[in-house]
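Revision sheet: C-alpha cells.
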Amino acid sequence: MKTVLGRCLPAGLVAMGLLLVGCSSIDARTTEYVGAPHAAPTSAAQVAVLRTEPTRPHVRLGEVLIDASIEPPPAISEVEQKLREQAASIGGDAAVVVYDRIQPVATYVEGPLWNRDIRDVEGRKLKAVVIKYQ
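Predicted:
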C-alpha cells in the first residue's frame, strides 16, 4: 500500500493514476460528403496539410475533425500525422485546415451546494476539408 496525502491506496491504483497524468490524447472523426466522389484510400505520407485552399482544380471529399488534449499536448507532428491518416483513408491528396483552436470542450461543477465553482475543460479542436486533385 502507498500513502498519498495521508490515505492508503493500492499500488495498482497509484500506478494507474501516474500513467493518466502524463498521457496526451488525439481523437479523430472523418465524414465523407454525400454526393462527393468516393476515392480509393491514398498513402498518408503523400497527403499535404495546407492552411489555405489551393488554386489547383480539386473536389472536396469530406472533413476530418480532431480533438486533442492540451495538458499535456501531443506533439504537433502526431496531430499532423493523424490528420494525414484520416484524409488518406477517404482518398484525399490534401487536407485544408479550416480552423485550429483551443476551446472549452466540457464543463464541471465542484464545491459544496451553496458555493459552487463552474470550471471549463479546454481542448484543441482542428477541422480540415479533405480534397482530391483533378
